[in-house]
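Input record, target 12 of the design panel.
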């Protein structure tokens, strides 16, 4: 099937020589079949197998030393991984010694009984022997045999035919079985990877894998693992899923085989390949935390596991403190995790956009109300907040970084930060005006504004004009109530270069204050007023907001004081001085 034509598409051919490259269908045959994976659902986690200490370590410019390896291994055990590939012991003294250190650790009870060590070996007799030397004393181990099987590797790299490659594999597997039989007290299981599986003829993979299943006498209580790598991605993820489903359907002794996958990320679709492979029958996934690995990396186990979590499926590994996990991985790999990395990056739960901030702020408020209605803590209530696929708190993140303000932000974001960090609950009619104050500041600076800076901007714009004065200053005042219920406000006002004592009467203290201002020649009409407390008990402070029309100019003012009345008077005075400054 060819792609449809798009007559509206204005793009022109590029000068790049795309004709040099062949599509996947010209490189490997994928048997036609009635697919079942598109209608499947993932309702449980596969067995996750981190290969950071082997495959990931081989990709580092500075491979891990023993201390970093041990720290990484301890992290993986603490997170709940049950199979951990720890090295390529025949490749280097460092890897061999690390496996020996783990054998000693296991002997002293330092490795849980349900954790299996995986070691990696090519199909060469001397290297297999060296690998078995490394695991001497380990009560449980998986020996992972590999050889490239695709035609291009057979022709270009190995210089062997299909039959010759199979003969090499059979001899290696026989040697492994003999060495394992010599250790009857150890639980040694086998794994095989036809490297470059996704470029290998499916019938040949089946032939080799079935031969090993029989040779190793696999059974349901002692299964073999057949691991099918997308060593270099060559196609869209659905093609890999078709390849996996073909093997899943046709492998002999299927109940005695753990079908595993090992996707790389050359096309940027490693996560999709792994997920579709699980839909297609894979039971085990190899990868690295945060996707480290050669070239573009191995598939990212963090993203895979938390993708399941976001669907309500238990990932079976612990990411409840994602920042602690990231810190260890960054230290051991000496590579940073990108700020936009799914789930774990510094900015992945952060909204700068005003529309996003408004939706998130409303979502948090809705979530709190729903939890109260259900009578459960917010941490237990069903999660349904716009733009946040999971609750950041579930992976140890605070809400402080969820909304951050810059020149792209809107009224919702800055209002949320002021409320959550400083207890300032701006009236809705004030928010658009204050957002313009913030935008001017962030446009001028080119930087984002922290919650502290937002608070300082708010005070400077709306509170200070009532505290420190301006065109109008209030130096002293008193208020009392007459027998008829009317309020009287007596004050000393400095208006420009004039100073005088003035008095006003009204049905409340603020209306009496506006009458005193009128007596001084300042006509003030209060259009909107609200107040609230910023804290509880001894930390409580009143905040008052007043929107006033002063001589035809409308402005907001705010006041803050332990006294509600003082805060309200300061708010009106701030609005008066802001209006005078505007004129």
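The sequence produced for target 12 reads:
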């Amino acid at each position: 099937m060819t792609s449809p034509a798009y007559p509206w598409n204005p793009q022109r051919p590029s000068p790049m020589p795309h004709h040099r490259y062949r599509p996947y269908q010209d490189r490997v045959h994928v048997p036609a079949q009635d697919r079942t994976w598109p209608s499947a659902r993932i309702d449980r986690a596969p067995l996750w197998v981190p290969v950071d200490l082997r495959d990931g370590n081989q990709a580092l410019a500075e491979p891990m030393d023993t201390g970093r390896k041990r720290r990484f291994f301890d992290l993986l055990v603490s997170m709940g991984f049950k199979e951990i590939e720890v090295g390529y012991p025949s490749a280097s003294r460092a890897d061999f010694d690390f496996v020996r250190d783990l054998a000693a650790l296991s002997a002293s009870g330092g490795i849980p009984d349900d954790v299996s060590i995986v070691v990696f070996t090519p199909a060469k007799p001397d290297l297999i022997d060296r690998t078995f030397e490394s695991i001497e004393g380990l009560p449980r181990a998986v020996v992972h045999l590999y050889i490239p099987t695709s035609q291009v590797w057979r022709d270009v790299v190995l210089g062997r035919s299909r039959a010759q490659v199979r003969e090499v594999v059979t001899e290696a597997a026989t040697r492994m079985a003999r060495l394992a039989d010599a250790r009857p007290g150890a639980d040694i299981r086998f794994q095989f990877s036809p490297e470059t599986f996704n470029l290998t003829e499916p019938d040949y993979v089946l032939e080799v894998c079935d031969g090993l299943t029989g040779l190793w006498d696999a059974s349901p209580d002692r299964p073999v693992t057949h691991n099918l790598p997308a060593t270099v991605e060559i196609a869209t993820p659905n093609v890999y899923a078709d390849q996996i489903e073909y093997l899943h359907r046709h492998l002999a002794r299927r109940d005695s085989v753990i079908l595993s996958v090992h996707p790389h990320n050359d096309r940027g679709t490693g996560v999709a390949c792994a997920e579709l492979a699980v839909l297609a029958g894979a039971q085990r996934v190899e990868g690295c935390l945060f996707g480290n690995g050669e070239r573009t990396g191995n598939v990212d186990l963090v993203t895979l596991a938390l993708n399941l979590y976001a669907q309500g499926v238990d990932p079976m590994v612990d990411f409840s403190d994602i920042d602690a996990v990231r810190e260890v991985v960054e230290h051991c790999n000496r590579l940073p995790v990108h700020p936009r990395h799914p789930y774990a990056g510094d900015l992945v739960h952060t909204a700068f956009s005003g529309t996003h901030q408004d939706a998130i702020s409303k979502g948090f408020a809705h979530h709190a109300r729903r939890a109260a209605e259900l009578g459960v803590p917010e941490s237990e209530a069903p999660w349904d907040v716009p733009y946040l696929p999971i609750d950041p708190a579930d992976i140890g993140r605070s809400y402080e970084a969820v909304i951050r303000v810059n020149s792209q932000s809107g009224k919702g974001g800055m209002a949320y930060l002021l409320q959550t960090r400083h207890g300032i609950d701006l009236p809705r009619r004030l928010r658009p005006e204050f957002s313009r104050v913030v935008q001017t500041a962030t446009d001028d600076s080119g930087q984002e504004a922290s919650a502290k800076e937002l608070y300082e901007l708010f005070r400077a714009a709306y509170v200070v004009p009532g505290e420190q004065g301006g065109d109008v200053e209030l130096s002293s005042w008193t208020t009392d109530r007459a027998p008829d219920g009317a309020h009287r406000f007596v004050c000393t006002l400095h208006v420009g270069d004039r100073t005088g004592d003035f008095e006003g009467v009204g049905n409340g203290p603020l209306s009496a204050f506006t009458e005193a201002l009128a007596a001084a020649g300042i006509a003030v009409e209060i259009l909107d007023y609200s107040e609230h407390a910023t804290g509880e008990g001894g930390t409580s402070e009143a905040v008052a907001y007043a929107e006033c029309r002063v001589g035809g100019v409308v402005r907001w003012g705010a006041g803050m004081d332990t006294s509600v009345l003082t805060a309200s008077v300061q708010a009106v005075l701030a609005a008066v001085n802001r209006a005078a400054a505007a004129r």
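The chain has 17 helices and 14 strands.
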